[in-house]
């Protein structure tokens, strides 16, 4: 005999989610919300996909239907003031991060925002201040903090296994713009918001460096744009001002030195975020294109003469963020960084816990914006810039 599903018997709350944006990241975040109940044996709350917002109604309805949203709207103000929405997830283009997010926190909604936090330092500062003043939970979606291999590296550093940190080297490389004849509409960093590579993916490298090695104190940068002008598919030509390559030498509060680099013209690189950290007692290195492994070298070895890097498969149940649904040795994919990140944010809301240090707050987003601005100013002046937050 069929019976109505009694969800109250599970004794788990749900949380009303509103997502602004139906593009790539809107779909990625929606997928994460759907997967949370499958990934965690007892989630803090079940995400309830209340509303999705976007400008193109046909595309919006198609995306919302795929993920099971209850409502759609073409005005983000309507989504924010929906009483069924408890948290607002901003997945819009970079230049649309500030206004809807500020409105959301003023309405008392918990706020999640895609990176970078904003296009300017002033907007990032305002977003941070408004969120902190509202007393809501706020998180910037730096999903790579929530890769199991990254969290294992963080654990090793926190436990002192690497000793004193000496060096950080990190790159985020893609090839999307390497061909000078590639049409402008196909080069994400040079069209649309024209955010450039630094804001688009360089922000991830900066966040990773701060997450693992601590705050930066100075930066000396260089920036290049190689392919300007570019043509649209229709033949119209446009000057490209967005950066295509950037790099910087950085100094950390703990005395460590580092190098960070991001590029959109690295031929052959689809989506390579890789980094290495060297310490007085050991080293670790990671490559997003091999995301289920962390390479670890520690001084303490049981057998003389076998010291070197060991490739660790981070898929055992005692590893950080191991998916409950997958047995040991069964690899997770790129999307699980978002699953773990969004679940962390929901847990912080339900348990009234701090989003930091494992989640990236709007304070982190503001500081990253300051660092990116300093890198650009350093590249322009040719001088090292000392950081002040």
Identify the notable features of this structure and list them briefly.
389 residues, nine-stranded mixed β-sheet, Rossmann fold, 2 domains, Dihydrodipicolinate Reductase, domain 2, 9 helices, alpha/beta, globular, six-stranded parallel β-sheet
Give an account of the 3D structure.
The chain has 389 residues and is α/β, with parallel strands linked by helices. It folds into 2 domains: 11-144, Rossmann fold, CATH 3.40.50; 148-290 and 292-332 and 359-386, Dihydrodipicolinate Reductase, domain 2, CATH 3.30.360. It contains 9 helices and 17 strands. It has helices at 24-39, 57-67, 76-80, 98-106, 121-134, 148-158, 196-213, 336-351, 362-381; strands spanning 14-20, 46-53, 71-73, 87-90, 110-113, 138-140, 165-173, 216-224, 230-231, 237-238, 245-252, 257-263, 272-279, 282-287, 293-298, 310-313, 385-386. The strands form 3 sheets. Strands 16-15-14-13-7-12-11-8-17 form a 9-stranded mixed sheet. α1 (24-39) links the parallel β1 and β2 (46-53). α4 (98-106) packs parallel to α5. The longest helix has 20 residues, at 362-381. It is globular, with a radius of gyration of 22 Å. The N and C termini lie far apart (64 Å).
Biggest sheet: strands, sense, closure? Answer: 9 strands, mixed
Beta-strand content bin: 15-25%
End-to-end C-alpha gap? 64 Å
For the largest beta sheet, what order do the strands appear in spatially?
A: 16-15-14-13-7-12-11-8-17
Q: Which topology of the largest domain does CATH recognise?
A: Dihydrodipicolinate Reductase, domain 2
**What does the average pLDDT come to?**
94
Name of the level-1 CATH class of the largest domain? Alpha Beta
Low-confidence stretches: none
Tally the structural domains. 2
């Amino acid at each position: 005999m069929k019976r109505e599903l009694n969800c109250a018997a599970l004794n788990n709350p749900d949380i009303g989610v509103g997502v602004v944006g139906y593009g790539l990241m809107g779909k990625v975040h929606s997928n994460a919300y759907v997967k949370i109940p499958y990934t965690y044996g007892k989630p803090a709350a079940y995400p309830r996909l209340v509303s999705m917002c976007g400008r193109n109604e046909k595309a919006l309805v198609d995306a919302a239907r795929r993920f099971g949203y209850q409502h759609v709207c073409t005005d983000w103000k309507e989504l924010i003031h929906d009483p069924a929405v408890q948290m607002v997830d901003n997945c819009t283009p970079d230049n649309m991060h500030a206004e809807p997010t500020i409105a959301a926190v003023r309405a008392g909604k918990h706020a999640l925002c895609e990176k970078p936090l904003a296009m300017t330092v002033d907007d990032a500062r305002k977003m941070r201040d408004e969120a902190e003043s509202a007393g809501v939970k706020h998180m910037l979606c730096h999903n790579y903090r929530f890769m199991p291999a990254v969290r294992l590296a963080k654990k090793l550093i926190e436990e002192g296994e690497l000793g004193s940190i000496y060096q950080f080297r990190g790159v985020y490389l893609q090839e999307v713009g390497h061909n000078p004849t590639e049409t402008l509409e196909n080069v994400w960093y040079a069209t649309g918001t024209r955010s450039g590579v630094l804001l688009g993916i360089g922000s991830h490298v900066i966040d990773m460096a701060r997450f693992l090695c601590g705050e930066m104190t100075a930066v000396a940068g260089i920036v290049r744009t190689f392919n300007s002008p570019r043509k649209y598919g229709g033949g119209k030509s446009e000057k490209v001002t967005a950066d295509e390559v950037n790099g910087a030498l950085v100094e950390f509060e703990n005395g460590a030195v580092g190098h960070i680099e991001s590029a959109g013209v690295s031929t052959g690189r689809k989506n390579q975020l890789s980094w290495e950290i060297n310490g007085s007692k050991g080293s670790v290195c990671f490559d997003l294109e091999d995301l289920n492994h962390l390479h670890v070298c520690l001084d303490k070895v049981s057998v003389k003469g076998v010291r070197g890097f060991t490739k660790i498969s981070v898929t055992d149940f005692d590893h950080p963020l191991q998916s409950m649904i997958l047995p040991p040795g069964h690899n997770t994919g790129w999307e699980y960084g978002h699953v773990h990140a969004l679940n962390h944010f929901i847990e912080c809301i339900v348990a009234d816990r701090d989003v930091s240090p494992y989640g990236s707050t709007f304070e982190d987003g503001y500081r990253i914006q300051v660092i990116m601005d300093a890198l650009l100013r350093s590249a322009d002046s040719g001088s090292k810039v000392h950081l002040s937050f």
